[in-house]
Amino acid sequence: MNTRITSLLNIVSPIVQGGLAHLAYAELAAAVSEAGGLGQITAMSLPSPDALRTEIQKVRSLTAKPVGVNFAIGQHDRPFEEMLDVAIEEGIAVISITGGNPEPLIRRTDGHDMKRLVLVSTVRQAQKAEAAGADAVMAVGQEGGGHLGRDDIGTLVLVPRVVDSVSIPVLASGGIGDGRGFLAALALGAEGVEMGTRFIATKECLHAHAAYKQALIQATEHDTTVIKRSLGTPARVINTKGSAYISELEKQGVGYEGLQEYISGRNNLRFIYEGDAEHGFGWAGQVVGLIQDVPSVQELFDRIMGDVNAFQANMQKIFQGKQQRCC
Ligand SMILES: Cc1cc2nc3c(=O)[nH]c(=O)nc-3n(C[C@H](O)[C@H](O)[C@H](O)COP(=O)(O)O)c2cc1C
């Protein structure tokens, strides 16, 4: 498959593994890149520039294929400029930026052989990213897992709106987990997809606790909630007792002071690393409704790309009136 994204990122299948805070380390990133997509290490999961350098060197020992580094710059306790310098020194081919104005990081990479992807949730953000020099944008709809835009625009509307509003290539994100979603994204004008939640339920996502993966399998599309809306930073979680308590506190209007302890990184790790659903929470998108197993990343890629061929044939039959439903 050739799209502007496969050429830009020098990959075989236009599937990017999204930044996954505290989950996207060398093993997962290498598995995605080895399978033909773009794997990423998440800088915010690492405590220091030196730790990022070690992680990049680890991923290099696992794959020679392109790998990206994700910068969620809303997290102000990391020295992102220095971490970016490490990524440049280590010859990282792609970065992705989310959570704030991407321009300073993009300027810092000017003159280096590095592609810059920016995660956006509105047309305006996409246009600003293009003007700032982004090479592609990933348009994430409100179905997605983790932090979202404030405007609740779904992937099905956001992606074609962004495609029509910028000239750089667009990846669709939010709610994609199988070949049907992948094909739908291409039909919307995207030239690739970004997936987050689906990659947590893979064998190579070593850091996710078995209880988190099991919860993703058991959940239906009804079993996620947006929390932190009262703070202006909405983010989608899988329902746990910990997340229900956060929602309850938000209803009571306790504000940041009252929420701080419960939305902390520590409580995130309690669920995703320790499986403690009583007190902890974990990000996940509505695509949980489509997750039924924990394959290897290679099996997932084979399934998606295999389904693309089968579904294309099925759609042809639908157009000819020989079949009622696609899949
Ligand atoms: C557990 C989790 C952690 C995430 N952490 C980050 C992050 O650190 N940086 C980032 O750019 N996006 C992050 N995201 C968003 C994903 O990269 C991706 O945009 C989103 O998951 C797409 O929606 P999907 O979950 O429906 O595939 C996270 C998502 C999840 C589910």
From TrEMBL:
Q: Which InterPro entries match?
A: Aldolase_TIM, NMO
- Oxidoreductase as UniProt keyword: yes
Keywords, alphabetical: Flavoprotein, FMN, Monooxygenase, Oxidoreductase
Spell out the molecular function terms from Gene Ontology.
nitronate monooxygenase activity
**Protein origin, superkingdom:** Bacteria
Instruction: Relate the protein's function as given in its record.
Output: Nitronate monooxygenase that uses molecular oxygen to catalyze the oxidative denitrification of alkyl nitronates. Acts on propionate 3-nitronate (P3N), the presumed physiological substrate. Probably functions in the detoxification of P3N, a metabolic poison produced by plants and fungi as a defense mechanism.
Read off the PANTHER family from this record.
Answer: 2-NITROPROPANE DIOXYGENASE (PTHR32332), 2-NITROPROPANE DIOXYGENASE-LIKE PROTEIN (PTHR32332:SF20)
Protein name (database record):
Probable nitronate monooxygenase
